[in-house]
Design brief:
By secondary structure, the chain is of the alpha/beta class. It is built from eleven helices and ten strands. A seven-stranded mixed beta sheet has the order 3-2-1-4-8-6-9. A three-stranded mixed beta sheet has the order 5-10-7. The protein is globular. The protein starts with a strand and ends in a 15-residue tail after the last helix.
Length: 269
């Protein structure tokens, strides 16, 4: 069976927020999708959660917990996707109900879609419950979120509302091409395979998203900016700091127009 989209979810010990992600997927205006969970060795009940009946098909792909191996588990998950179009999200986000619809409406040949997210602050995130997500609280204007942003707890309230009008998108530069954010981008499966998937040589936090962005760009594909569309909300958690080496490598690669193929990717030399 084929689907309009395969949603690839990266996870690692985030069963609490993964539940909220699944609840928001139940509310999507487009129902013709499957979920492939790429799990980097969780031990918090993530697998059991994925085996529950959520009303959409879930394929669970995992590996032993052997350090940061996000690129490796993504490459293991990619061949399991049955759709020709892939939408990538993380397990710590909640999706507005048009999220899948927006990605599918923006897709076009020789392009990939780059979204952004609302950063929920620690105080706001503490008050999220299953019932709030089920009620559709993230599908409508939120006074509480607006106040949270005014208090500098949460960030990017302007990304919480969909803007479809092309003139407004041009005025506010919402449609400006941008790079890939791993929790919110989509691409044709054939294009991901054409650059050999994710770079498994990256085994420390940060960089695998920028790496595949550069290879897609260098292969002649163009990015579509989806700010204020494909709306998602990132639940607060403490973040690791990328190594200076990873950051330096990324900015060095940005200038490299010839880098199109991950030597250690889907196909191994």
């Amino acid at each position: 069976m084929s689907y309009s989209a395969s949603i690839i979810v990266t996870s690692y010990n985030q069963s609490k927020t993964l539940r909220w992600l699944f609840l928001s997927l139940q509310q999507q205006t487009v129902k013709d999708f499957e979920v492939v969970v790429a799990d980097d060795g969780s031990s918090d009940g993530t697998q059991n959660l994925c085996h529950e009946d959520w009303g959409f098909p879930i394929t669970f792909v995992t590996q032993p917990d052997d350090g940061y191996k996000k690129a490796l588990i993504l490459n293991k998950a990619l061949p399991q996707a049955k759709s020709e179009y892939l939408i990538f999200v993380d397990a710590d986000v909640i999706l507005e109900k048009h999220f899948v619809q927006d990605h599918l409406e923006l897709r076009r040949p020789h392009h990939f879609v780059c979204g952004r997210r609302v950063e929920l602050g620690p105080q706001f995130s503490e008050k999220i419950t299953d019932d709030k997500v089920k009620s559709g609280a993230f599908n409508r204007f939120s006074v509480a979120l607006f106040r949270s942003c005014l208090k500098k707890d949460s960030e990017h309230f302007n990304r919480s509302r969909r803007v479809k009008n092309s003139l407004l998108r041009w005025i506010f530069k919402y449609d400006r091409p941008m790079d890939i954010l791993g929790s919110n981008f989509s691409a044709w499966k054939s294009d991901i395979f054409s650059v050999n998937g994710f770079n498994e040589s990256l085994e420390s936090y940060w960089g695998e998203d920028g790496d595949i962005y550069i290879r897609l760009r260098n292969s002649g594909l163009r990015s579509i900016g989806a700010k204020a569309l494909c709306v998602q909300f990132h639940v607060y958690h403490k973040r690791r700091t990328p190594t200076p080496e990873n950051v330096e490598r990324y900015y060095r690669l940005l200038k490299d127009q010839d880098y199109k193929w991950a030597e250690k990717g889907l196909l191994k030399n």
